[in-house]
Design goal:
Blueprint (H helix, E strand, L loop, with lengths): L1 E9 L4 H14 L3 E8 L7 E9 L11 E6 L2 H7 L3 E10 L10 E4 L1 H8 L5 H13 L4 H11 L5 H14 L3
Helix pairs in contact: 1-5, 3-4, 3-6, 4-6
């Protein structure tokens, strides 16, 4: 098994943290994982990308060749990074931040829903919940453990609410 996941958006959305949490959850499940990241020089608002490869054996090449899952949390990310996807790739976009008529993708209002919960910044954890329920690339239990280990303690409750909301929005 080898799954390649690309998460993209803009700085300030927690894109890099999301990839780190996903990779840690994969390790907790007993898999092998590598995570790479890139982001623009801006503190907030520039392009950000996190790529995670999860496998059940040694990973010889640590870069994504064709993504199995592509998540876009901004229009720029969607437009720039939708190219090298596997046939049948699961594509998830933030419904309110990505405008497209492309077929075959799932539109979920992560940012708007996170805003209703009280903090837009938890949209990334909500997205991880949806990813967990839609793909099962990692277990819910391991993802929860990784979220708890990596979000600020003072924001743990709202992040857990966001994760559970993401699970629901992902269809499980």
């Amino acid at each position: 098994m080898r799954k390649e996941i690309r998460i993209a958006g803009f700085g300030g959305q927690g894109i890099v943290l999301s990839g780190f949490i996903l990779g840690q959850a994969a390790l907790l499940d007993g898999n092998v994982a590598v995570q790479s990241q890139s982001y623009g020089p801006e503190a907030r608002g520039g392009a950000a990308k996190s790529e995670v490869i999860i496998a059940d054996e040694k990973i010889d090449y640590p870069r994504i060749t064709k993504a199995d899952v592509f998540i876009a949390m901004s229009q720029e990310a969607y437009d720039k990074l939708k190219g090298d996807l596997k046939k049948g790739c699961i594509m998830i976009v933030d419904k309110d931040l990505v405008r497209t008529n492309d077929r075959g993708l799932v539109k979920i209002p992560f940012t708007a829903t996170a805003d209703r919960l009280g903090k837009k910044i938890v949209a990334n954890v909500m997205m991880l919940g949806a990813l967990t329920s839609m793909t099962e690339v990692v277990s819910k239990d391991s993802m929860l453990k990784a979220v708890k280990a990596n979000v600020p303690k003072k924001a743990l409750d709202i992040n857990l609410k966001a994760f559970e909301e993401g699970i629901k929005m992902g269809g499980r």
